[in-house]
Fold this sequence. Notes:
By secondary structure, this protein is an alpha+beta fold. The chain has two domains: 8-67, Ribosomal Protein S8, Chain: A, domain 1 (2-Layer Sandwich); 80-134, Dna Ligase, domain 1 (2-Layer Sandwich), CATH 3.30.1490. Helix content is 24%, strand content 29%. It has helices at residues 8-21, 33-44, 118-123, and strands spanning 26-30, 50-55, 62-67, 80-82, 91-92, 106-111, 114-117, 128-134. Strands 4, 5, 6, 7 and 8 form a five-stranded antiparallel sheet that branches. A three-stranded antiparallel sheet has the order 1-3-2. The longest helix has 14 residues, at 8-21. It is globular. The protein starts with 7 loop residues before the first helix and ends with a strand. The mean pLDDT is 93.
Amino acid sequence: MSTTTTDPIADMLTRIRNAILVRKHEVSLPHSTIKEAVARLLKENNFVDNVSVSDNKDAPGKTLVVKINSETSSARISEIVRLSKPGRRYYVNSKEIPVVKRGRGIVIISTSKGLMTGNKAKTEHIGGELICKVY
């Protein structure tokens, strides 16, 4: 049985949040390029350990596997929140990009040059749609 969701990014963030709450070490979810880009940004900023894409044996399509932490360490994500939603898009210019927890967290923004962190978007002087904030 296939389930569809109207907001796949919110579904991804919820799966990560729920896995952290029950102390799971990795999450597997249906693959899409935007979800992979968000996961890779989380890896580049040391919020998750590893991101991999594997072919699904049982069903068509690929699976995105996000390793949150190792078995000996705790999760480095304490808060992960979706900002822009399908019913209410949230766009900002480069001067309005928020700072998360005085710079200890990141905001992921979708720009005309692809997904990037808020700090990189500020240095390149481009705005876009705020995807999520992570702390």
